[in-house]
Amino acid sequence: MTSPATTDATVYRVVWQPGSDTLVGVCHCGAERDADDPIEVWQWLLSHPDHDQP
């Protein structure tokens, strides 16, 4: 049996900016958003395709 993680090609990335409290969310579509709140970043990422795309 294959796990769901290996069959889903969607990748979301949250990167911490060293020296700050800023997180950068990167959607699989290429759009990016900066925020201090991790919940805000994840809500934005999971709202695809409703967020702005590059």
Description:
The termini are far apart. This protein has a three-stranded antiparallel sheet with strand order 1-2-3, with helices on one face. It has 54 residues and is an alpha+beta fold. The model has no long low-confidence stretch (mean pLDDT 82). β1 and β2 form a beta hairpin.
How would the blueprint of this fold be written?
Layout: H1 4-7, E1 13-16, E2 23-26, E3 32-35, H2 38-46
Antiparallel strand pairs: 1-2, 2-3
Please give a quick description of this structure:
With 54 residues, this protein is an alpha+beta fold. Helices cover 24% and strands 22% of the residues. Strand 1 (13-16) and strand 2 (23-26) form a beta hairpin.
Helix and strand sequence: HEEEH
Give the number of DSSP strands: 3
What is the radius of gyration?
13 Å
Q: What distance separates the N and C termini?
A: 37 Å
Major sheet characteristics: 3 strands, antiparallel
Overall form: globular
Low-confidence stretches: none
Task: Report the mean per-residue pLDDT as an integer.
Answer: 82
Descriptors:
24% helix, alpha+beta, 3-stranded antiparallel sheet, 54 residues, 2 helices
